[in-house]
Structure formats: C-alpha cells, structure tokens
Amino acid sequence: SQQGEEDPQALSIQEGENATMNCSYKTSINNLQWYRQNSGRGLVHLILIRSNEREKHSGRLRVTLDTSKKSSSLLITASRAADTASYFCRAGSYQLTFGKGTKLSVIP
Amino acid sequence: DAGVIQSPRHEVTEMGQEVTLRCKPISGHDYLFWYRQTMMRGLELLIYFNNNVPIDDSGMPEDRFSAKMPNASFSTLKIQPSEPRDSAVYFCASSLEGRTGELFFGEGSRLTVL
Q1: In this structure, what are the phi and psi dihedrals at residue A55, rounded to the nearest 5 degrees?
Q2: Which of B2, B4, B1 is nearest to B107 (CA)?
C-alpha cells in the first residue's frame, strides 16, 4: 500500500489563485516531504516538515502537518503558470513510497 | 555541484534484450535509491543502497531485475531479459540525510521495450 496518498488527483486553477493539495499517510513518520515534477523531468524536493512541526513556510509554499490525522497539506499562494506540474508527498517512515501525485494546471 | 546523473536518457530496445541503466549519485551521499514510474502504478521503489550495500530489494519485481553498486559513485540497474511491461521511466535518487531524508533525483531513463 502507498504510504503517501495525494488528493485531489488533478487541480486546475487560474493564475494568481491559491492551490491546496493534501496528503494522507498510514504509519508514524519522522518527516513528510513534498516534491514537484515537471513533465518529463525528475522530481525536485520542495520542502520537508518534521514530525514535531505543525507548519512551515518557504517562499510561496506553506506546508502543514497534522500527525493526529496523519495528513499534510501543501498550499501554493499566488500561483503562476510555471507552477504547472505534478506534486508528490513522501512520508519519511519505514515505507519509502510516494503517492500518485496531484496534477496541478495553472491557467494564464 | 553536479546533481544525480543518469544514462541513457532514452532507451528503445526489443523484447528479450538486456538493458543496463546507470546512475552516478551526488558525491558524499551515502544512500541511493532506484524508482520506477508508470502511469498505472505511479512511483515504485525498486531497491535502495546504503554505503554501497543493498538494504531492501523487496520492490524488485522479478529475478530479471538486478542492481549493483560497486562503489560510492556508480550504480547500475539491469533487466535481462527485458519485456514490454518493463517500459517505464526509471529514476535514481540519492540522499545525504538517511533513508528518510531529502531525495535528489536524476532526470530519469525512459525505457521502451518493443
């Protein structure tokens, strides 16, 4: 079973809007990581939040972590066309798997 | 500083042929991971190494798949014989901060088996 599952599977928004995607996991974790994958490219690490943290910011990214609900969310504020990509979470735990990702389309 | 380097970027081969994919991790990273990505199954972890030693190969789909890491700067993933269902993008990633740390991915090797 996948340790990280992203939701929604696809998201389409207008440029300038905020995009929120969610991740659920099953077991206890050390950390949770978010990655971006542009079409035809490798994954790029965006942000890591540790299990004892609740919220973390990096530029236009905001990540929250709720260990009681075993879930995390990634918020991209003021989205740009260049944010169009697939986004994956990875739960840092015994299982090292990824979910199938959220495909974000930002329409100019 | 160079990132993770994979070769070849694209490989087209016929069923039954041997395929070898190569990976050079970032210098100093002691964990190396091989993933496979398909539309149907998403990203699957095939195997990972720590200090050149295979730690978990439970994701390797069949005996046709093998992986080696003869030294800290080189790893191979071999498929022999290849089958059409092996068609996928194969990613190598390395990590400095352990098995649960941030991963640095290569650009992938896109394999098509006819």
Answers
A1: -150, 145
A2: B4
pLDDT above 70 covers a percentage of chain A that reads: 95
Environment class of residue B62 by beta-carbon count within 10 Å: exposed (0-12), middle (13-18) or buried (19+)?
exposed
Write the CB contacts of B1 (distance below 8 Å, at least 6 apart in sequence). Answer: B26, B27
CA-CA distances (angstroms) from residue B9 to B53, B83, B89, B110? 25, 19, 9, 6
Task: Name chain B contacts of A99, Cβ cutoff 8 Å.
Answer: 42
For residue B110 the two structure tokens come to 């896109």
Closest CB from B33, B102, B106 relative to A45? B102
Q: How far apart are CA A73 and CA B97, in angstroms?
A: 23
- Phi, psi for B86 (deg, rounded to 5): -85, -10
Asked whether A21 and A36 are in contact (CB, 8 A), the reply is no
Assign A99 a pLDDT band (cuts: 50, 70, 90).
confident
**3-state SS string over A35-60?**
EEECCCCCEEEEEEEECCCCEEEECC
Q: A interface mutation test: which of B33, B95, B103, B109 has the most A CBs within 10 A? A: B103
Nearest CA in chain A to B39: A100
